[in-house]
Specification:
There is one protein chain. This protein is α/β, with parallel strands linked by helices. It has one domain: 3-Layer(aba) Sandwich (Rossmann fold). The chain is built from 3 helices and 4 strands; from the N terminus they run E-H-E-E-H-E-H. A 4-stranded parallel β-sheet has the order 3-2-1-4. It is globular. The protein starts with a strand and ends with a helix.
Length: 99
């Protein structure tokens, strides 16, 4: 599971390229707008949320999108990068709500 803002998209693209095509990947990517989105290849379940000009501060939309992801009940890995407060919201959800 990946959650990041656009500054982490390059790293995520690299990580996805190193993964087997059979691995299931979910995530939320935050961008300023639809026009700023990076094309990330593969059949991954990556949701996009947009700040629409808001400063990159703690945006609940990214954390809410992670909360709404339908994930399997198996052990996995989460890679979260971005604005600190948003990362804390996402981390707390993953640890306390999802286990």
């Amino acid at each position: 599971m990946f959650a990041c803002e656009e500054t982490g998209s390059v790293a995520i693209e690299t990580m996805l390229g190193a993964m087997s095509s059979s691995e299931e990947v979910y995530g939320v990517l935050e961008y300023n707008s639809k026009h700023d989105e990076m094309a990330i290849p593969g059949a991954h379940r990556l949701l996009r949320v947009h700040r629409n000009g808001s400063l990159s501060r703690c945006l609940p939309e990214a954390a809410e999108a992670v909360e709404n992801l339908v994930l399997h009940d198996q052990v996995g890995v989460a890679y979260v990068t971005g604005e600190a407060q948003t990362c804390v919201l996402i981390r707390n959800h993953l640890i306390h709500e999802r286990g």
